[in-house]
Amino acid sequence: MGEEASGENGSDSEEIETVLDLEQTPTPVSESEIFKDMLRHMMAPLMLGMLFGSFWQIVVMPKIDIFPNPIHGSFMIYLVFSPLIYKFLVGQEMNRAKEYSLGVLSVAIVLSFVWILPQQSSLYCGVFLTGISWLWMSSFWLQFEFPPFRYGLWHAIAVNIGAFGGSVLTYIYI
């Protein structure tokens, strides 16, 4: 009787180990999928931020002195177009576009306060720390699917970095 019980436990543990092995085996992701996700979630928001920052630097900044700066302007433009951007970049059902916009808005509010800090503090907090955070997030988050709010957070940080880069390049070369 003791032998039967140990035999049953042995087969159960083998089944459990097999199931655990199957659950721990990562699903392979092709390079084309990774590249497509990099374009959608990293490069597209970054380039949109550069475009909006350059636009704000060329069109608005000559008419005003300092506030709102190109990063603030980029966030405003991005928020206006966020439902359309959500449709093209995230591609989930459109009734969740508000979540995406709230994710963008939450980062935009925090970083807008950062960009009005005095002297070099805004540069360190607004570019260097967010840049490092964005690179870390991008390397880690590409592996998963997220709700729209989190994509909004991720994309807004890219817009921040892109807007800074675009406005500086525009200021230097135009």
Q: Please state the CA-atom Rg, rounded to the nearest Å.
A: 23 Å
Query: Please, what is the average pLDDT?
Result: 86
- The end-to-end distance, rounded to whole angstroms, is 88 Å
**In one word, what is the shape?**
globular
Number of helices: 7
The portion of residues forming beta strands comes to under 5%
Low-confidence stretches: 19-23
Counted up, domains total 1
Largest sheet: none
Helix content: over 70%
How would you describe the oligomerization state of the chains in this entry?
single chain
Number of DSSP strand runs: 0
Question: Would you list the SSEs in sequence order as H and E?
Answer: HHHHHHH
**Sheet/helix structural class:** mainly alpha
Structure in words:
The protein is an all-alpha fold and 174 residues long. It has one domain. 79% of the residues lie in helices and 0% in strands. The chain has seven helices and no strands.
Features:
globular; 174 residues; 0% strand; mainly alpha
Question: What is the topology?
Answer:
Elements: H1 2-24, H2 31-60, H3 70-80, H4 82-89, H5 97-114, H6 121-141, H7 148-173
Helix pairs in contact: 2-3, 2-7, 3-5, 3-7, 4-5, 5-7, 6-7
